[in-house]
Amino acid sequence: MEPFRVHILGCGSALPTPRHYASAQVVEVRGKQFMVDCAEGTQMQLRRSRIRFTKIGAVFITHLHGDHCFGLIGMISTFGLLGRTAALHVYAPAALGPMLDDQLKLFCRHLEFEVVFHEVDTEQQQVIYEDRSLTVETLPLEHRMPCCGFLFREKPQLPHIRRDMMDFYRIPVSQVNNIKAGADWTTADGEVVANSRLVTPADPPRSYAYCSDTRYMPSLAERIKGVSTLYHEATYGTDNQLLAEKYCHSTARQAAMVARDAGVGQLLLGHYSSRYEDEQLLLKEAQEVFPQAFLTDEQAVFEV
């Protein structure tokens, strides 16, 4: 099975602390890398993670609070210093477009690569990126400004070839793609070997939903039903539920309720308030509702 991983670069909220950087992740899917949010300090975290800058093909920004986008122009500038030539695609709410254009003209006038901006409608769930192996959809969220999450879905794969059967029937390598596509094999003696004997089932498609920042949305569970891994903000515990409501954030317990109702495989908690010096309180609250909940931390890597 090819890698599908989430690299945590930052999992704190608006106020950076000595313990946590603000929001940024790299999603690695079948050899491709995508950044989700790009807070201040992201490029330093990339270096610590030993993630190759040049492999990041696109950046997805959830909303225009600084703890999710202040690092973007600095990272683009560094890409230029490193001699990048491949285009960088930026998917974000429309208001970022003119600001990014002004920053590029001011700070990055001599880039050797193109920065392609894609306006995102935060109120619609729709596919905004697609390649041969993956789609990325928007997930409308409810925050103090236009905001959406992102849903990464692996496309179904072809079945696996049984090498022992290929060898036994002396099937040439040139027929592998046909057999993966469902063809039977006919031997020189006229025996028809059913395709089901030549392959094993494909790995089930995996999916990753990134949901930050948002107030508790019971309806979100239907939009992310059955995803393999869910990252959901858990800014506060129930001890600060009034603050969560005031600032349109979620508690760890509410994040777990979304995970439980959606039937996800595992829940990753993040976007911690600086009020908490120990996030174990948040983890305990979440695990009381959804046992497969885990705390994120800088430099942590999770398999989807």
Notes on the protein architecture:
The protein is an alpha/beta fold and 304 residues long. Helix content is 25%, strand content 28%. It is built from 10 helices and 18 strands. The strands form 4 sheets. A 7-stranded mixed β-sheet has the order 6-5-4-3-2-1-18. A 7-stranded mixed β-sheet has the order 7-8-9-14-15-16-17, with helices on one face. Strands 10-13 form a two-stranded antiparallel sheet. Strand 16, helix 10 and strand 17 form a beta-alpha-beta unit. Helix 9 runs parallel beside helix 10. The protein is globular.
Compose a concise summary of this entry.
With 304 residues, the protein is an alpha/beta fold. It has ten helices and 18 strands. α1 links the parallel β3 and β4.
**How many β-strand runs?**
18
- pLDDT < 50 stretches: none
Strand content: 25-35%
User: Structural class given helices, strands, pairing?
Assistant: alpha/beta
The outline comes out as globular
N-to-C SSE string, H for helix and E for strand: EEEHEHHEHEEEEEHHEEEEHEHHEHEE
Q: Please work out how many helical segments DSSP would assign.
A: 10
Gyration radius, to the nearest Å?
22 Å
Q: In whole angstroms, how far apart are the ends? A: 11 Å
Determine the fraction of residues in helical runs and give it as a percent range: 25-40%
Average pLDDT score: 95
- Major sheet size, sense and barrel closure: 7 strands, mixed
